[in-house]
Design goal:
The chain has 113 residues and is mainly β. Helices cover 0% and strands 52% of the residues. Strand 10 and strand 11 form a beta hairpin. It starts with a strand and ends in an 8-residue tail after the last strand.
């Protein structure tokens, strides 16, 4: 398991809009308010809110849209293998054996003839 205490500056997101194909992830908001985007849905979040993101679920991010720091805890599995999909960037990250992984630009894939 990965466990991270995050402070999100005003106007920024915890990370790029993404989804994990193999790992589960969750966020617990400690302080502040912001917006959670899950697929096409945008939800307001505040201290005490908990969001679980199942493996293979919709892409998501959490953004600080208010005037103070947004603090949250992000917990996620750390499996031997995961694929992270970044749909807005048309990229995928392939990670194995605890290494950083390889980022693939989907536009560079050429179909076999």
């Amino acid at each position: 398991m990965g466990f991270h205490l995050i402070e999100v500056p005003i106007g920024l997101a915890t990370c790029a809009f993404h989804r994990h194909l193999c790992e589960e992830e969750c966020i617990y908001t400690l302080e502040g308010t912001g917006t959670a985007r899950i697929g096409a849905t945008v939800l307001q979040v505040e201290a005490g809110d908990f969001i679980a993101y199942p493996a293979g679920g919709q892409a998501h991010d959490l953004r600080n849209t208010r005037s103070s720091i947004l603090k949250c805890i992000i917990v996620g599995q750390r499996l031997d293998f995961d694929i992270v999909d970044y749909p807005e960037q048309a990229r995928q990250l392939y990670r194995a054996n605890g290494e950083k992984g390889d980022l693939l630009d989907m536009a560079m894939i050429v179909p076999c003839q």
